[in-house]
Design goal:
With about 220 residues, this protein is of the alpha+beta class. Helix content is about 25%, strand content about 30%. The longest helix has 16 residues. It is globular, with a radius of gyration of 22 Å.
Length: about 220
């Protein structure tokens, strides 16, 4: 399995077992005439109880209450806002909008995934080579509660069957690029690793070929 799929920690069932533990503890306290029905009803009541506020607003539900959490914020200077306005224009983002409330942040948690400077994301797809375009996060910007990543693009060379990872390298003399959180191909954070020869690899947690194909067709199933 390690040879075919990579490190087993990337296929861990601990999170699912933790969620299942609720039902295992509850099972001994129910009648056994229709155990599946009893557990389903108790789970539904529990979810309804967590959602029973006066306004029934989705943001108060545990699934969405922590949709975004920000680290320490610092407001961008006037020069930084001018520079970022030029960069936003270069990538066709927020045309004509003044960046009066632009902040930079060291880290941000979006839907329980933590993004921080130095992390690697899949920002785009190279349609010609059908390879992911990885970017190392250089800076994180917050504008009107929207998240934008300023990243340093990496050149993807090929997929290594040996390491189950993409072979990448840094590109010299390249400017940082900009993308929004919503435009990411995948919403995971990746990390690069060097082999014994100093070559750089980015392991992925699962096969992303289908995900890239659907992204190129504008049908990314992860979009919400």
């Amino acid at each position: 399995m390690i040879k075919q799929l990579g490190p087993l920690i990337r296929h861990s069932c601990f999170a699912f077992e933790s969620a299942h533990n609720y039902f295992k503890e509850l099972a001994g306290k129910q009648n056994f005439k229709n155990l599946a029905k009893s557990l389903a009803e108790r789970c539904q009541l529990k979810e309804c109880g967590n959602f029973a506020d006066v306004n029934e607003a989705a943001r108060t539900h545990p699934l969405f209450a922590s949709e975004k959490n920000f680290g320490p914020l610092s407001m961008a200077t006037e020069n930084a806002r001018k520079t970022m306005r030029t960069k936003f224009d270069a990538f066709g983002l927020l045309p004509g909008i003044k960046l009066q409330h632009l902040y930079k942040v060291a880290w941000v948690i979006c839907h329980w995934t933590k993004f921080k400077r130095g992390g690697i994301t899949i920002c785009n797809v190279d349609e010609e080579g059908a390879l992911p375009v990885f970017g190392e996060i250089h800076q994180i910007w917050i504008l009107n509660d929207y998240v934008y990543f300023e990243y340093m693009p990496l050149e993807t060379l090929y997929f290594s069957e040996r390491f189950q990872a993409y072979h990448v390298k840094y590109v010299a003399d390249v400017d940082t690029k900009l993308c929004s959180y919503e435009s990411l191909v995948d919403y995971n954070v990746f990390h690069s690793h060097e082999d014994n020869e100093g070559e750089l690899y980015v392991p992925v947690k699962y096969d992303i070929v289908d995900l890239m194909e659907q992204h190129m067709e504008g049908k990314n199933p992860l979009k919400f």
